[in-house]
Specification:
Elements lengths: L11 E4 L5 H12 L3 E6 L2 H13 L4 E5 L5 H15 L2 E6 L15 H22 L3 E10 L12 H21 L3 E6 L10 H4 L2 H9 L13 H19 L1
Parallel strand pairs: 1-2, 1-4, 2-3, 4-5, 5-6
Helix pairs in contact: 3-4, 4-5, 7-8
Family: Belongs to the short-chain dehydrogenases/reductases (SDR) family.
Protein name: Tropinone reductase-like 3 isoform X2
GO molecular function, one term: oxidoreductase activity, acting on the CH-OH group of donors, NAD or NADP as acceptor
């Protein structure tokens, strides 16, 4: 069993979208290394369940309902953190959506707006709200994606928003220095709840993992082509996990 240090002892960390998946694991690790962690999600039920799981591991945790695209809820997240702990040392901007597998030139404007609002704009606005509270020696971590480097066919616009976060990180690193470090993490494919729209849909698996320029309607559910895909999915899945 890995023996963890206490690098974050006495630190206060906010992790957005942190009741499941990557965000939850980040919050958990920060907490196990000594941080007081503030987790958030759009749903109270998810917040309560995650708080209980982290508390059971001996972590000092505080949960707040927050949809990052909601200005009042973002402000409330920061305000409640300061009221509870009196300071802020770490922000992990993890919230993201991917509501479409449409080609970029076919995405409807409301969907395009949602991608930009949550994946990019909300990260900036959250940091605007939090900047005045960040301590000297504080840290901001922005979660991008491997899709930001080479956007796959079925996740093209999602990949573009993640590319934007790479640029945002560089710009903020210069702007927030020397008191705050700004770094970016770009995970590869992780089979979380967020990724179920990929792992649960063979058509999308083909588009994402093989980069085929296919239309989703080419192979209907129940067709002979579709029936062969379950045997191939574990192969593609393992290939991505090794990347």
């Amino acid at each position: 069993m890995e023996k963890l240090g206490k690098r974050f002892l006495g630190k206060v960390a906010i992790v957005t979208a942190s009741t499941q998946g990557i965000g939850f694991s980040i919050a958990e690790r920060l907490g196990l290394e000594g941080a007081s962690v503030v987790i958030s999600s759009r749903k109270q039920k998810n917040v309560d369940e995650a708080v209980q799981k982290l508390t059971d591991r001996g972590i000092e945790v505080f949960g707040v309902v927050c949809h990052v695209s909601n200005a009042q809820q973002r402000k409330n997240l920061i305000d409640k953190t300061i009221q509870k702990y009196g300071k802020l040392d770490v922000i992990v901007s993890n919230a993201a959506v991917n509501p479409t597998v449409d080609a970029i030139l076919e995405i409807k404007e409301p969907v395009l707006d949602k991608l930009w609002d949550i994946n990019v704009k909300a990260a900036i606005l959250l940091l605007q709200d939090a900047a005045s509270y960040l301590q000297k020696g504080s840290s901001v971590v922005i979660i991008s994606s491997i899709a930001g480097y080479t956007p796959p066919a079925a996740m093209g616009m999602y990949g573009v928003t993640k590319t934007a976060l790479l640029g945002l990180t560089k710009a903020l690193a210069a702007e927030m220095a020397p008191n705050t470090r700004v770094n970016c993490v770009a995970p590869g494919f992780v089979p979380t709840h967020f990724a179920e729209f990929i792992t649960g849909n063979a058509n999308v698996m083909v588009l994402v993992f093989r980069g085929e320029n296919l239309r989703l309607r080419h192979y209907s559910i129940g067709s002979e082509q579709h029936k062969t895909w379950p045997r191939l999915l574990p192969i593609w899945h393992q290939k991505m996990l090794r990347m």
